[in-house]
Write a structure and sequence with these properties.
single chain; 6 strands; globular; alpha/beta; 6-stranded mixed beta sheet; 3 helices
Length: 150
């Protein structure tokens, strides 16, 4: 096991783990937005895809059951980002991870957002969280201009 790899507890796993990755308009190399989320994102993904297509913006999505603290979520993001250049990441992952209390969830969300911004600095980041109202700590303030609530 690598140094930074975690052993996942049964708390992180759900009864059924799933992941749905799609890249629309794969042959086109125009602007692209990546939607990262859960089943809610999967539900509105087609509408977003059609609306953005009208503006010549292509969509990809990563919809998953992985909770914010699940190390496999990073692996899925890395794979989704490896296929096409992305200009904007829309992040809405909040329905999974009910094993986390509010403080732990906020800490895990902050770590994920910092990791995304450090790993993909060329991308703007749009955060949409409906599940919980939590304050991401001050260490995210350095990303305030690039991270938007949508």
């Amino acid at each position: 096991m690598e140094e930074n790899e975690q052993v996942m507890s049964d708390e992180i796993r759900e009864e059924v783990e799933w992941c749905n990755i799609r890249w629309f308009d794969g042959a086109d190399t125009g602007k692209r937005v990546l939607l990262i989320g859960d089943s809610i994102t999967l539900g509105y993904g087609n509408v977003v895809c059609e609306k953005l297509k009208e503006k010549q913006i292509h969509t990809a999505w990563l919809c998953t059951s992985k909770s914010i603290d699940n190390p496999s979520l990073r692996k899925e993001i890395e794979y989704a980002m490896s296929e096409y250049p992305v200009e904007l990441i829309h992040f809405n992952n909040g329905l999974h991870g009910w094993h986390l209390n509010e403080t732990t969830y906020a800490d895990a969300l902050e770590k994920m957002l910092v990791w995304i911004k450090e790993t993909y600095p060329m991308c703007s980041l749009c955060l949409q969280q409906r599940r919980r109202v939590c304050e991401v700590s001050m260490s995210m303030s350095r990303y305030k201009k690039e991270t938007k609530r949508c």
